Batch of 2 targets.
Target 1
Amino acid sequence: MYSVPKLEDYSPASLDKAAAELLSALEAESQAAADAKAFEEFRNRWMARKNGILSQINDMWLKPAPGPSKRDVGQRVNALKTAAEERINAAQSRAAGSANDAKLKAETVDISLPGILRPLGVKHPVLRVLDELIDVFVKMGYSVAEGPEVETDYYNFEALNFPPNHPARDTQDTLFISGQEKRAQRDRLLLRTHTSPVQIRSMERLKPPVRVICPGKVFRNDAPDATHSPMFHQIEGLCVDTNITFGDLKGTLEHAMHSLFGSSVKTSFRPSFFPFTEPSVEVSISCPFCGGKGCRPCKQSGWIELLGAGMVDPNVFGFVNYDAQKLSGFAFGMGVERLAMMKYDVDDIQQFFYGDMRFLEQFA
Ligand code: DAH
């Protein structure tokens, strides 16, 4: 390694030679400093105030110089120091630059690589039909209302004009919450068997006029098969105002069916019974697949039964303190899976709940 030599004489040639040797040693050492630590050592070795090579040349070259050459040697030593410092600084910024380059290189992202493909989810077909229906009614000025899935006997039955122990309750295959025997019957909890209790909750909450649509899950003690499921979805509608007639019910449902299945489907209303409507009807549409000729979805009949409906029974208004003398209304309720099965020609309701991707991907 370089160390500062004693000068043999102070002739310009000998001074030039010593200066050139020093600079070339400095250059070689700076090249050899491979990392930041080595560079720091190199820099100290040369530049340290105390005993760095550049301070040594003062002691070794300038101090012993004979009087007449002092001035010349002094100038040379200063020039040499400046040149050496410039080189060290240049080497330092070169080193910093290449460290930066290396860092940038390591951080480079190859934007031409294909990204991570995340498959987008889609709406479940049941939800799709549900949302479509909600949309149809929202456009007619209905708002969406929801109620609890665990309901009391009062809202699920009593306020809907199902008298206690009335046989109509038996048609609902109710799932009761256990351990409720100590409670009064109207307070006993059950899994709601239909979305109709939301009619009552909505009328309790709102002053007439009322136009609500109530989507949600309902539960029945049915063994699962191709057309039954212990959990399914319904959508309920309720319209209460002055002078609401059966004609309004027909027109509203006809419009909804046209929006869902196209304007060529016909609707049919047949008398039926529900405790909370009087009169009550079963509504069917002409089969949208065969146009009424008869096919598999309509079981060759040309018609498909879609929903229950009717004019709100005045007794129901009594439960929510609505004036049955001034007000009238209609209500309807339909099964969403049934609609979805029709719309997408699905022959087993269980398909909606298996979570089988081969089935679900068809709706993507
Ligand atoms: N809640 C009835 C059911 O689940 C369906 C229904 C019928 C709802 C007539 C109504 C209605 O609002 O007016 O079978």
Target 2
Amino acid sequence: MSDLIQVRPKTEGWKQKLGPDGKPLLMFAEPKRGKPPIHLVDLTAEERAERLKEAGVQAFRAKQIAAHYFTHYTSDPSEMTDLPAAGRAELVGSLLPPLLTEVKRLQTDNGDTIKFLWRLFDGALVESVLMRYTGRITLCISSQAGCGMNCPFCATGQAGLTRNMSAGEIVDQIVRANAVIAKGELGGSKAKMKDAPERVTNIVFMGMGEPLANYDRVMKAVRTMVARQPEGLGMSARGITVSTVGLVPAIQKLADENVPVTFALSLHAPDDELRDELIPINSKWKVDEALDAAREYFDKTGRRVSIEYALIKDMNDHGWRADLLAEKLNARGKGWVHVNPIPLNPTPGSIWTASEPAVQNEFVRRLEKAGVPTTLRDTRGKEIDGACGQLAAAE
Ligand code: SAH
């Protein structure tokens, strides 16, 4: 690996507003748009009861409807024969309005990976990716239509933020995926799965959007995922990974939520000089602040955190950067962190490329030699443009 060549990030194909420095503006607030229909997931238990009362329906019906949604993965009133026929369609429609319309589905040749393109009520497009592994099924979900964080290597970042997704829209991605699995449409080897009916076991907030920029709705969705059936999906918090560019105050808030999700920080560079350009939010919260917040997350939750590092040829893959990363992590203690390098998935038309395999291996070797647990991640779904950073939702 040569430590001499240094390629600098360059923005390509940006569609959003530029600031005085010629770079795209970071977007936290969403442009004004209509709100998606309110869904069962968006309501508290009290609000659900209130709605039923208004409709003149007994309160226990909310539980029946929730059971259909969270355990049978259906929003179709014709399947809910335990509800009185009179007014059933209206009642179900008011609590389970359709949120996601399937526009396109791409599946890998061996069938174990499916990418869904969904249209939201206002025409906004989002994607999710369903992946079967041995003993688990992971769904990569979106939390925003578009993203305002402008990371130049990420396809989603190039069109800016359209809007935040509602908690209902976030959770519905899982319910719809579970329905697809229940119908037997996800291929791949089922060996080693338990006897229980198959469903999504792991969630990664690594689809479109910056989850911590849509904090309240993402947390409401997470609470619904971990709530017991039939009030929620009954998933384990540790199987849910929240990945962020490093919004420090939100990381601190997340650490105090008492929902021990797995936390991932998209670092991609250990030095501010490069990270300022690669992860534009670094202009606000620096590498050391983001790492301190990650360490604090471990201290408060006991959950080992992940550092995401996309290896980009001659840009961030230098040996000295591996050493500097190890130094910064070790300076904050041992046993609290795990590094996940992943070869860059070039966005279509990009001049950037993934690091050479030998360079990837050297990067990993240096981290491991310094005692930092490191796992090179695979890039599932590449052939269907479903790999990390390729979710652009262009039709
Ligand atoms: N906004 C959040 C989550 C969405 S992206 C975040 O940034 O963490 C999920 C992961 O994919 C992040 O680590 C992101 O940096 C990474 N990623 C984005 N574009 C990529 C690309 N082209 N190749 C590989 N990983 C990429």
